[in-house]
Predict the 3D structure of the following.
Amino acid sequence: MNLVNAPSTRRAFVLNGTLVLAATSAASLPLYAASAEDDLYVGLVTDLHYADKPAGGSRHYRETLRKLEEAALQFERQQPAFVVELGDLIDAADSVDTEKKYLRAINQPFSAICDSRHYVLGNHCVDTLKKEEFLEGVGQEKSYYSFDHGDYHFVILDSCFRSDGVAYERKNFKWTDANIPAAELEWLAADLAATKKHVVVFAHQRLDVNNHHGVRNNAQVRKVLETSGNVKAVFQGHSHQNDLNEINGIHYCTLVAMVEGSGAENNGYSLLRLATDGTIRLTGFRNQLDRDFR
Ligand SMILES: [Zn+2]
């Protein structure tokens, strides 16, 4: 990571309904400098859990507004082609109306970062809302889909389904019962078979572990990813801590949660740099570790 000098920036944002003017000294930020022209840049954030409610344990729900502000400043320098939010954008509210307010409050600054955005559904996104309500709130049509950019094919997965195939919504599920149902798996296999590009997958619940944080049928999902032969890496959230596993040539990289811990030093977000030869570099900020995949 290179350090560059930049003037301090003054930005306005709304915190708890109050307009805050934040003077952010660039000297206090770990800044990232640009490199190869053909490389594709993607901004990543996960587990923001935004809610206008007091902290619960290590989760500082209100602070994600300020933390996202720093990520926005960082992304602004690199101008990523798109940004991906890897799930749990919001935390639970006591009513649908309040939850929709939380969603608007966090999605407004997130939307300002980049015109091109992708949202992975997290279990907390549909704890109070229905999937269609969340998707409508962020202006996204589908919960799982794929798209191409340059030499890469990107897949957004939705693991918010119970083992009986019923979609998560309004507390009708146990958070440990995450599954990718047969119809989505069939779609995934056909989608991957139709591309020759390097593939990067975005998921919320983990595809690499068998504990409570893992998608229950993730062995089946991994088999589909491995059969494609083109999948380079899977980026995921959900367990809130840095982790990395390589299984049969695919890197499963778990990103740190933005909501964990108080203060700017406990932020976490990252910038992905994808080279045309399939080399992937993740530059992590604050608590997010750097990663290199070849
Ligand atoms: Zn979470």
